[in-house]
Sequence to fold (500 residues):
Amino acid sequence: MKIQTLTLYPAQEVFTKITKEVLNLFKVAVVGGKEAADYAQLSVVYRWQHTEGGRVQVRVRLYAFRCDGMRKEYETQGDGADDEREMAAVHRLAKLGLYQIFRRHFGMPQAPWGILHGVRPTKIVHRWIAGGLTEQAIIRRLQQDYACSREKAELIVPMAFRQLPFLQTSSEKTVSIYVGIPFCLTRCLYCSFPANLLPGEEELREFMAVFRKDLAAAQDAVRRYGFTVQNIYVGGGTPTSLPDKSFAEMLQLVYNAFYGPACGEFTVEAGRPDSMSAAKIETMRALGVTRVSVNPQSMQEKTLVRIGRRHTPAQVVEMFRALRAAGIPHINMDLILGLPGETATDVEDTMRQVVALAPDDITLHALALKRGSRLKLMMEEQHVELPDDAETRRMSETALRYVRAAGMQPYYLYRQGYMSGDLENIGCCRPGAEGMYNIQIMEEHQTILGIGGAATTKVVDFRRHRMKSAFNAKDLTTYLRDIDHYIEKRALLLEEAYGE
Ligand code: SF4
Fold:
């Protein structure tokens, strides 16, 4: 649907954001006065007041002016819930009201997640669990308050209950360590990560020197505040794109600094088979790595070529078997649904091949079309098309059917902007193989110390009930140049939350 002009009242930033989110959900474009459109103007008015019972009540009115001069008017009204803060209720009801008008009067299809827009839809579920609501009551509220589909509500609510024992293993002084190795061998078509291709020897030496400094400062913080390290996650980029010697040096440094008796999970994202070697597998085995991610994304050769990955499906299988033979306890495989040129039949074939390997954990990502990716540019300039939403949803249904048939359950989930099919990323595993780090970071219950390029530190301030983040630069030059600044920012956040 196209409209020429959109007006809003009140014209506050938050209502502009809410309105745009609903328009994006239904792919309604504001095209300006010069282009043909379905409507000359839509005007949205949000008003709220308090009922006698003290609840907040929100009315949404939409005036639609057609290009032939016809005018129509639609209205919805909704009341806030008892356990909702006033302005949170106003924003939710404003969005829900506009969503309902588009659904009822403009024939728009249901959005799978309704108006539940954030990265972590399980957060609201955990809040309701803490408030004493049952599984069925939460499923109902997701549908009523957020227009979430029953299917998605039934996906995340049992998942949140399953997460509880894992979240309870963490106390205020339990932390995880994230290590960012910001290099890759080639750049994938869909990636928006800055292109830090593996640098030459000299720059790599410089990186390792700065990395040591970063790591030593984080190690000091662990000692100073008496933290217990529960999980170590080495990600990137592709950490295994480092040459064998640098990889061993990096992993040994991480091990020496943070590995201890309480460390239950030590993950390395090995990513791509073209970055793997027997020496790296031996390093991981010798240092007690418990979890390795092998990320084929697809097992279709034509797709791997298309998305710029220089490896074959056969090399994925070879790498997987070598890791198993080395005795790595948990192997995860990442796949992407909605890749260019793929159909649900391709995904079915990929799932058949992946499930046959019996990984412990499979993460199903929906393609997120990010600004800054070559894919986004190609779509604009060369009109490369992606599978449509219906096809991508079929891919997701197929993939979930396979993981469930293999005895796996969804155990964590997150969403991003611009996801194909308005879908989500879901981690599924066999019982007992849950990635603790994935659960802790997604639910933001635990402080994460980020070290290395593009690493994020998340500090949970239990005294003030809030979380603050600090980001290391994504591009290598800035990270190397400004390391002291990043160390200081991390130290300040930690002192604020944990200092005397
Ligand atoms: S391996 Fe990951 S980080 Fe590296 S280019 Fe591909 S998508 Fe980007």
In short: The two ends are 57 Å apart (CA to CA).
